[in-house]
């Protein structure tokens, strides 16, 4: 970076930002206190706990912005220019990957540096996305477009065709993931290493985002609805079938949650074959668990689970869930990028962070529903006379 600035200086094409940055470095080399203060506010490389998730090298926000107070003469140290705090992502990282796996580095640059000049100085990539969670919306829309292929036969009495089409959707989802992972043998499938992959086809682009790899849970939802309608809400399972199905659903659910733990906890990890099987089947198995629960509750066989899920308190939250999904990453990014000190993962801190983030997410969701969703719902009712 310094060589880049030096070359720019010789070619007389330096910006005010680059000139201030050269001054900052030269002043620090002369051990001037104001420059050392600015550089000291940077996030430091290789802090303790890196392998345990300490990847937010945020530095010191307040030290970057505030002038240094000198206790001897009770005055603030005069600076040649003010500091400007920036949070940077490494080259190749996408914003969606930074929260769990990526590295965030806090730096303090001269106040004359804008976004583009800072990018030029440190040579990073910037990825813009208006609403981070909106990537799933086009998946959902395409699922709604093709759902009539199964819904229409069911409505007109061709129920076997409806079940066959929905089952084919499930197989397409599973087969797509399996086929892509077999076709690209070098594609990373471990979530941490996959997030760091910057060359060649990536798991995120080829599998995580694509609708054909995500249709299985949606199709299992269709099948669940077909079964509930076909059997009727008065249908009753015998006690042994219900116990066996519930135990099997519990095993499936716990497997989906904990089967990947050895891959993170042990050096040897899981084999590639095991991870491919997990990626291909986990979402479908989880959908089966939810489908079984919905079937039992819809036929009034859910017991205490049905009682809890029928509490009136869930009704307003259900109306907010979609907006909460859309805004949740914004709240999380605001929380992360406004941290002024490193975050250390401890059980009580995680619980505190989860509860506070959940609260603010639903507050933001209420605002979104009131000012955006509700007006369009009212307008739709007026236009279509509903």
Automatic annotation (TrEMBL):
The keyword Transferase does not apply. Keywords: Membrane, Transmembrane, Transmembrane helix. Residues 14-138 form the Nose resistant-to-fluoxetine protein N-terminal domain. Coiled coil: none annotated. InterPro entries: Nose-resist-to-fluoxetine_N, O2_lipid_transport_reg. The chain crosses the membrane at residues 161-184, 244-264, 284-308, 320-339, 359-379. PANTHER family: O-ACYLTRANSFERASE, O-ACYLTRANSFERASE LIKE PROTEIN. This is Nose resistant-to-fluoxetine protein N-terminal domain-containing protein. It comes from Rotaria sordida.
């Amino acid at each position: 970076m310094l060589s880049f600035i030096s070359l720019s200086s010789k070619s007389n094409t330096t910006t005010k930002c680059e000139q201030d940055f050269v001054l900052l470095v030269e002043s620090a080399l002369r051990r001037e206190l104001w420059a050392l203060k600015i550089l000291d506010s940077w996030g430091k490389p290789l802090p303790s706990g890196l392998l345990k998730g300490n990847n937010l090298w945020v530095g010191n926000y307040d030290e970057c912005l505030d002038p240094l107070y000198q206790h001897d003469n009770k005055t603030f140290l005069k600076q040649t220019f003010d500091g400007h705090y920036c949070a940077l992502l490494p080259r190749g990282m996408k914003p969606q990957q930074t929260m769990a796996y990526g590295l965030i580095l806090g730096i303090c640059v001269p106040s004359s540096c804008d976004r583009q000049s800072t990018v030029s100085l440190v040579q990073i990539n910037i990825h813009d996305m208006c609403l981070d969670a909106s990537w799933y919306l086009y998946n959902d829309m395409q699922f709604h477009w093709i759902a009539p292929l199964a819904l229409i036969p069911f409505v007109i009495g061709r129920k076997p065709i409806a079940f066959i089409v929905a089952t084919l959707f499930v197989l397409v989802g599973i087969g797509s993931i399996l086929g892509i992972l077999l076709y690209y043998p070098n594609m990373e499938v471990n979530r941490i290493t996959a997030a760091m992959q910057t060359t060649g086809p990536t798991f995120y682009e080829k599998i995580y985002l694509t609708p054909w790899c995500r249709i299985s849970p949606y199709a299992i939802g269709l099948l669940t609805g077909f079964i509930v309608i076909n059997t009727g809400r008065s249908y009753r399972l015998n006690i042994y079938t219900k116990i066996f199905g519930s135990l099997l659903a519990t095993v499936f659910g716990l497997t989906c949650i904990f089967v990947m733990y050895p891959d993170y906890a042990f050096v040897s990890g899981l084999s590639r074959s095991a991870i491919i099987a997990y990626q291909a089947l986990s979402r479908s198995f989880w959908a089966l668990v939810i489908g079984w629960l919905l079937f039992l509750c819809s036929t009034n066989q859910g017991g205490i689970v049905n009682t809890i899920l029928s509490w009136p308190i869930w009704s307003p939250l259900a109306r907010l869930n979609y907006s909460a999904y859309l805004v949740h990453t914004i709240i999380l990014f605001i929380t992360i990028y406004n941290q002024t000190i490193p975050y250390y993962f401890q059980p009580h801190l995680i619980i505190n962070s989860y509860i506070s983030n959940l609260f603010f997410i639903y507050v933001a969701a209420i605002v979104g529903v009131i000012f955006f969703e509700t007006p369009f719902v009212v307008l739709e009712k007026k236009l279509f006379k509903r």
